Amino acid sequence: MYFIEKILQFVRILSPFVYIFIAFFIFIIIFAICFDHKDTKMTMNKKPALSFWQLWNISFGFFGVQIAYSLQSANISRIFATLGADPHDLSFFWILPPLMGMIVQPLVGKYSDRTWCRLGRRIPYLFLGAIVAVLVMCMLPNAGSFGFAVGGAMVFGLVALMLLDTSINMAMQPFKMLVGDMVNEEQKAKAYSIQSFLCNAGSLVGYVFPFLFAWIGLANTAPDGQIPDTVKWSFYIGAIILILCVLFTTLKVKEMPPKEYAEFHGIDTTCAKKDNPGMFTLLRKAPSTFWTVGLVQFFCWAAFLYMWTYTNGAIADTVWNTTDVASEGYQAAGNWVGILFAVQAVGSVLWALVIPRFKSIKVAYAISLLLGAVGFASVFFIHDQYLLFISFLLIGVAWAAMLAVPFTLLTNSLSGDHIGTYLGLFNGTICLPQIVAAACGGFILKLVGGAQVGMFLVAGAFLVLGALSVALVKEGKKS
Fold first, then answer.
1. N or C: which end of the chain has fewer CB within 10 A?
2. What would you measure as the largest C-alpha separation in the chain, in angstroms?
3. Counting beta carbons within 10 angstroms of the beta carbon of residue 108, is it exposed (0 to 12), middle (13 to 18) or buried (19 or more)?
4. Residue 428: predicted pLDDT
5. Does 5 map to a domain?
6. What are 297-339's pLDDT values in tens digits?
7. Per the domain annotation, does 320 fall within a domain?
8. What is the spatial distance between Cα 237 and Cα 421, in angstroms, rounded to a whole number?
9. Is 277's pLDDT higher than 90?
10. Cα distance between residue 234 and residue 256, in whole Å
């Protein structure tokens, strides 16, 4: 009976969301069916030029996936702190997301390289990941609403977080691969710029949701151990947008059949069946660029892991002068974190327009990381919530470079028919540093005196090391 009561309680909590979701689900299906899908005629050995809207459709689902990812990155520390986690333990909760990414993305790359069904090659993984993400986004913010003790709520939250990040990673990776599969060399820069725009736009929307819902009157505080309505509804609405966007891409994009894919990518299908190296073999044969860019990535992603983990506690302490997670000040700081991360996204969009103007992509990479380091360090000294905009604009500069430059350097060094697998493996250079940083977070926090804002100095130092490591990177296929 107890278990049934909890299920009924969960259904009552989500009932408003369910009605809205069903209505939007029906709407998007009707909307998509009403548009004729025009197949693109392929010519032998050269991918055709795609229209702007065809390029847009390929990446549009990324907008919804990025909303889910930004909600996770901006609110995970807030959720677990509200559930009762000690600040020195917060970083441990951040081990699961990159760990799941490190496992899932190489597998998605490897198996999608060899998949073909009615939906295509990459889209089945995209669609499955999105469905699971929607379900988990409804559960995670309710971890404290089922009457569990603190320990039970933490376990429930951890399992939900693991499933959420697994599904987000499964949905995210195919978008990078779709561009590589379907877009010709002349249009790849344009395609990735559209994807970058949608990525930052999705981040912007996800980050401001809690602040927006507080502004329209939803409760921003809750009883001890429960998550405020502003956060819950942010996840609910984010889930709706995610499934709508992914459905749109699923219905509007038609991938190349295996035979045409092989022709356009110069793959000998008779040899491909014999030549099926494992991941460790591919790693051993990876170009040196894979490893040197990976070193830069290590310092960059460790820095951003600390930003995601400690921003809420840091600005609650330095701007709102509180460390009480149940206080209005702490929850107001949580909403302001979304605004600051949105400012970071704006800075990223603006700086992405500047990066192509550098004659050397490596110089652009190094300068971007140094400016980001200044942004991180300045958070330690600023105690005004609006002056923090400057800090996060500079952090956005580093973020823009991290989104664009590493994949440019890597793909320029790759050749062959294992692109999906290599992109999945390269995700390890994003996930591993976050795992290491999360495992060491509590220890480093003690070293800097226990004040969470001190971790921003550590993050700044990491970006300086990353900028210095750029000198080791060699460009091109000969590297």
1. N
2. 68
3. buried
4. 81
5. no
6. 999 999 999 998 999 999 999 999 998 887 889 888 988 988 9
7. yes
8. 33
9. no
10. 36
Q: What is the pLDDT of residues 362-390, one digit of tens each?
A: 999 999 999 999 999 999 999 999 999 99
Query: What gap in Å lies between CA 52 and CA 59, rounded to an integer?
Result: 11
Indicate whether 40 belongs to any domain. no
* Closest of 83, 221, 233 to residue 153, by C-alpha: 83
Tokens of 214: 């507080």
The domain tally of the chain equals 1
Is 45 a residue whose pLDDT tops 60?
no
- Dist CA 183 CA 193 (whole Å): 13
Structural domain for 229, as ranges: 14-29+56-269+281-472
Q: 5-16: b or e for each residue (b if 16 or more CB lie within 10 Å)? A: eeeeeeeebbee
Residue that has been written with the tokens 């090659």 in this structure: 121
Q: Could you tell me the pTM of the whole model?
A: 0.71
Q: Which residue has the tokens 């069904």?
A: 117
Domain membership flag for residue 46: no
Cα–Cα distance, 254 to 182 (Å, whole number): 10
